[in-house]
Amino acid sequence: MGIIATELRPYFAAEDEAREKALRSCRQVIRYSGDAIRAVHRQEQDKARQFLDSAHQLLRELSYDLAGHGRLLHSGFVHDAQKELAEGYITLALIAGEDLPKPRALDVSNAAYLDGLGESVGELRRYILDSLRRGDFSRCDELLSIMEEIYGVLMTMDFPELLAHGLRRTTDNIRGIVERTRGDLTVSLRQKSLEAKLDDLS
């Protein structure tokens, strides 16, 4: 029995060391991705790209380090880091009017990419609300249409939880986000129209 334990201990010690290192890297990826999204909302797109590129490099290194630790590579915390990175790149692309990056280009799983795509809807809502507060309606309809398109795409991805990693719950949340945003935009447009009419009368 002692011989077996002696043989197994190095395996688990290596797994534990790899896990601790991976957790630190994932936390940093998530931090950089959050910083990037905040930069996008401040109209600092170049700075957002720098944060995302740093996060992407960390994720590449993480994948290399975990090549011999398959269970860790497909763990929930790695999925979450990939999701946050995907959300950051997708949000930046949509707001900058660029083509969406593909999962392979970001080195993320397909499930993490779809989760990130879904999460980007909340960031688009935030961007629209900020635009409305500034009185800038120029891209609100366009971005709302993108939100609706994302919802439509994710609705077609009706696969078991084991494969989709909570995508169904994300999709359900998106429906409410889209409906609230449509309502907010409608109210703002009506108010703008009313103000214009009152200005004409004065």
Q: Which architecture of the largest domain would the CATH scheme give at its second level?
A: Up-down Bundle
Q: Any idea of the CATH class of the largest domain?
A: Mainly Alpha
In angstroms, what separates the terminal alpha carbons?
93 Å
**What is the SS-derived class?**
mainly alpha
Q: Uncertain runs with pLDDT below 50, 5 residues or more?
A: none
Main sheet characteristics: none
| SSE order, one letter for each helix or strand | HHHHHHHHH
CATH fold-level assignment of the largest domain: Methane Monooxygenase Hydroxylase, Chain G, domain 1
Helix count, per DSSP?
9
Gyration radius from CA atoms, angstroms: 21 Å
Overall 3D shape: elongated
Strand content: under 5%
Topology:
Layout: H1 2-41, H2 45-65, H3 70-73, H4 76-96, H5 103-106, H6 110-133, H7 140-155, H8 161-164, H9 167-201
Give a structural overview:
The protein is an all-alpha fold. It folds into 2 domains: 1-108, Methane Monooxygenase Hydroxylase, Chain G, domain 1, CATH 1.20.58; 122-202, Methane Monooxygenase Hydroxylase, Chain G, domain 1. The protein has 9 helices and no strands. It has helices spanning 2-41, 45-65, 70-73, 76-96, 103-106, 110-133, 140-155, 161-164, 167-201. It is elongated, with a radius of gyration of 21 Å. The relative contact order is 0.09. The model has no long low-confidence stretch (mean pLDDT 92).
